[in-house]
Amino acid sequence: MSTSITPRPLPDVIASVVADAAAGRLTLGTTGAIHEGVRCTANVRQHELVVDEPAGLGGTDTGPNPVELVLAALGTCQAITYRIWAALMDIKLDDVRFETEGDLDIAGLLGLREGVRPGFGAIRHRVVLIGPETEERYRELMAAVDEHCPVLDIVANPTPVERTLEVRAA
Fold first, then answer.
1. pLDDT of 14 higher than 90
2. If you classify domain 65-158 with CATH, what class do you get?
């Protein structure tokens, strides 16, 4: 038996944040661990993600790798933000599709060459909007989405990261 969840209507979300700014501030998190080889699990709310590398990179290919998850996060966050901002701007939007890819040189991860980034050297993100509006109207929507998309902001701008290490005896 599957449980159906009714999403909270966007106007209700907006009204609650307008009424109380604290209602819009969230701290999100995940926990996880590495298992055999390089396969990891990550727990996000009630969801478990399996993260692994393809066999060619030493994994067992039981899930996407971390950098693929970044690409998926960017694409899906953009799609969600398009849906939200289309509603906010009263723009009819039937569908949003995306293709996101990035260039990675694993020599950076492995420390094999000086000056090679361990992360993406470039990301290309293509969005296809389907609906009855003019191209100009959809370009206005794109500008609003690009200004407000959380994951685009994370990958396009430096974000402070506080790291700590705890060492325990085996």
1. no
2. alpha beta
